Amino acid sequence: MLLKVSIIIPAFNESKNISQVLEPIQSLRDDYEILVVNDGSEDNTSEVVRSFDISIIDLTENRGKSYAMWTGLKHTKGHIVLFLDADLIGLKPVHIENLVAPVVKDMADMTVGIFYSGRNITDLAQKLMPFLSGQRCVKREILDKLDSKEWFSGFGIEVALTRYAKEHKLRIQEVPLFNVTHSLKEEKMGLTKGMKARLKMYWEITKEIKKV
Question: Which stretch of DSSP H or E encloses residue 136?
Answer without folding.
Answer: strand 136-139
